[in-house]
Amino acid sequence: MVVAAVLMVTSVIAAGGAVAQDGGPPAPPHSVYGDVVDSSGNPVDGALVEITDASGTVIANDTTENGTYSVNVGGLDEGDEFTVSVANVERSDEQTLTWTSGASERVDLSVEVSSGGGGNLPGGGGSLPGGGDDDDTGDALPKPTAVISIDPDPATVGEEITFSAAKSTDEEREIIAYEWVIDGETYTGKTVTTSFDSAGLYDVELTVTNDFAENDTATETVTVEAKQDPKGDDTDGTGDDSDGTGDGSDGTGDGSDSGGSAIPGFGVNVALIALLAFAMLSLRRQH
Q1: Quick check: 38 and 172 in contact, CB under 8 A?
Q2: Alpha carbon distance 73, 100 (integer Å)
Q3: Distance CA 172, CA 39 (A)
Q4: Phi/psi of residue 280, each to 5°?
Q5: Are 48 and 61 in contact (CB under 8 A)?
Q6: Side-by-side strand order, sheet with 48-53
Q7: CB neighbours (10 Å) of residue 154?
Q8: Cα distance between residue 274 and residue 120, in whole Å
Q9: What is the C-alpha to C-alpha distance for residues 123 and 237, in angstroms, rounded to an integer?
Q10: Which of 170, 129, 37 is nearest to 92 (CA)?
């Protein structure tokens, strides 16, 4: 009897130990830590680092201080995948890891930050969207450069003029929008063609925008001249012949220059009158 009781107690203790062992303390978390920097390598303060499971559900997060974060990832099973990324930014690196009990991994992330929003870059630079600060007194993000090309310039009334933004550049981003204001009219597109109905100077404005909503504006002035007469006359719009071949403006036709007479044929008429007077006087003397 005693032996049977001892065996029964031993069995119960062994079973209880097994149960305790199976439902024992939770496995230690998988630790993830690292730095978050911008495209220039500067630490980003206030960045929200999120851990998402395979279904995209956020299961842990941390906010950077001086660009550094540390997250303990729990609630997953051995071999489950999870992703590390930064939320509420234009672009973020991300990395997918496999959950392992007690593991510790360093994951550094790079992000694109905007110039008007939340967590600040060191020195008061650009910031993350959605935060509390709005301090853009530091280093600005690279912006596109708008450049206007005009062909021809000067042009003539009614002549088609091509305005091109092809020489506009952006070192890091892609220009996605071109907006023109030409003589008060709005146009869009990388190249615009138009003409003008009268001579004058016309203002041209171009605004280019990249895929990060950064923009730049350039202005130029195009000259439009009066159309030339193909016959070569009346080029100054005064009604006179500018080449001097029709009205004697060169002094060869009507004596309007310093070497001619004031009245056409006046010298010949005077000579004839003088000869006639001389003849009449001679006849009188004979009588």
Answers
A1: no
A2: 10
A3: 10
A4: -65, -40
A5: yes
A6: 58-63, 48-53, 81-87, 94-98
A7: 13
A8: 107
A9: 64
A10: 37
Quote the pLDDT of residue 75.
Answer: 84
Residue 81, both tokens: 């995948």
Checking 118-125 for CB contacts under 8 A at 24+ apart, the result is 118/46, 118/88, 119/44, 119/45, 119/46, 119/47, 119/63, 119/64, 120/45, 120/46, 121/38, 121/42, 121/43, 121/44, 121/45, 122/42, 122/43, 122/45, 122/66, 122/67, 125/42
Say how many C-beta atoms besides its own lie within 10 A of residue 162's C-beta.
14
| Tokens at 49, concatenated | 């680092």
The residue behind tokens 């910031």 is: 127
Q: Which residues contact 106 (CB under 8 A, 6 or more apart)?
A: 32, 33, 34
Rounded-to-integer distance, Cα 16 and Cα 8, Å: 12
What's the pTM value of the predicted model, to 2 decimals? 0.38
Name the stretches of the chain with pLDDT < 70: 1-25, 114-141, 230-268, 282-287
Backbone angles phi, psi at 87, to 5 degrees: -90, 160
> Where would I find the beta strands (DSSP E) of 173-275?
175-182, 185-188, 191-194, 200-210, 215-225
Cβ-proximal residues to 74 (8 Å cutoff; 6+ apart), any chain: 26, 29, 30, 60
Q: Which two tokens stand for residue 120?
A: 């600040």
